Amino acid sequence: MSFKEKLLLKTKDIDEKLELYLPSESEDETGIIAKAMRYSVFAGGKRLRPIILVSVAEALGGDVNKAYPFACALEMIHTYSLIHDDLPAMDNDDFRRGILTNHKVFGEDIAILAGDALLNRSFEIMSKACALNNDCSLVKAMEAIARAAGAKGMLGGQVVDVINDGKKIDEKTLRYIDKNKTAAMISGAFEAGAYIARAGEETTRLLYEAGQNIGVAFQIQDDILDVIGDFETFGKSIGSDEKNNKTTYVTMFGLEKAKEDTASLSEKAVKIFKEIGSSMDFLAELTNYLIKRNN
Ligand code: IPE
Ligand code: IPE
Ligand code: MG
Ligand code: MG
Ligand code: MG
After folding, report:
1. What's the pTM?
2. Residue 89 Cα, ligand 4 centroid: separation in angstroms?
3. Which of 10, 51, 78 is the pocket-test mutation for ligand 1 (most atoms within 8 Å of CB)?
4. At residue 29, does pLDDT exceed 90?
């Protein structure tokens, strides 16, 4: 099977599992919240984080069925972060995943609540999986995800990002933003996958490090596409960062260096995968594929 075929299969797998975990649209007065949650989750994300989590667990000999609840929970947290990131109080964007943003369709109030509901549902799913399996390594995976999404991870990065809108920031601050708002959830996917497979400490640490490199490269590429991307393929408005007067990797270092650094950070991650062994081949291919992504 080619890399592209494997990726497609894994994406489909995650989409199917997500369907099982999302509430259905009931006819009662709370039906609107399920509708809003489903609207953004099923708008067609790349499913990068859950694919990483499941692939790591599988590559290290773990049980993929134990990995799915955590993978789906991670994607729900990611989707909530996107709904909130698009709100007028944050980036004020109109398009996401190729369709109107959540608040443009459901209003700001429901969009905020749909994000909250996705976050809560994710912890409901993970804690239930921990209890059902009575497995401490799953608790460690949940903790890794909670930490990745929290104030010392994605949220912390988002805070430093938004409070600096319109301000000149130094390199250290930019690196803090990229490492936290984006890389934290990606290294969290690697870490959680490793815990589920009960990997050794050194392998878990190496994978976390690879995730950090991929995550920063991923955000630099996002900054690049925000400038030179195509709306139809990217699925979100081009020039959002400029509109919000954000300092990004591109405004600080220029397009050429941004492209070079995306490649060299990815190379570092691939080197780690080679060190761990051939079971990591899919993740190495995924890393190289992401450098060339245009969505
Ligand atoms: C978008 O993430 C937000 C960033 C961290 C740059 P993705 O590019 O993974 O978005 P989806 O999930 O595919 O929509
Ligand atoms: C946000 O970064 C990353 C998140 C934690 C949601 P961006 O604001 O650049 O992400 P996009 O470009 O809106 O997806
Ligand atoms: Mg943002
Ligand atoms: Mg944004
Ligand atoms: Mg962006």
Report:
1. 0.98
2. 11
3. 78
4. no
Q: What is the DSSP string of the chain?
A: --HHHHHHHHHHHHHHHHHHHSPP--SSTTHHHHHHHHHHHTTT---HHHHHHHHHHHHTT--HHHHHHHHHHHHHHHHHHHHHHTSTTTT--SEETTEE-HHHHH-HHHHHHHHHHHHHHHHHHHHHHHHHHT-HHHHHHHHHHHHHHSTTTHHHHHHHHHHTTTS---HHHHHHHIIIIIIHHHHHHHHHHHHHTT--HHHHHHHHHHHHHHHHHHHHHHHHHHHH--HHHH-S-TTHHHHTT---HHHHH-HHHHHHHHHHHHHHHHHHHHHH-GGGHHHHHHHHHHHT---
Which numbered ligand comes closest to the C-alpha of 164?
3
Question: With pLDDT > 90 as the criterion, what percentage of the chain qualifies?
Answer: 97
> So what's the pLDDT on residue 30?
82
Centre of ligand 2 to C-alpha 82, Å, is: 7
Q: Is the CB of 91 under 6 A from ligand 2?
A: yes
Pocket test for ligand 1, best of 15, 39, 47, 48 (most atoms within 8 A of CB): 48
For 141-181, how does the pLDDT look when each residue is reduced to its tens digit (9 = 90+)? Answer: 999 999 999 999 999 999 999 999 999 999 999 999 999 99
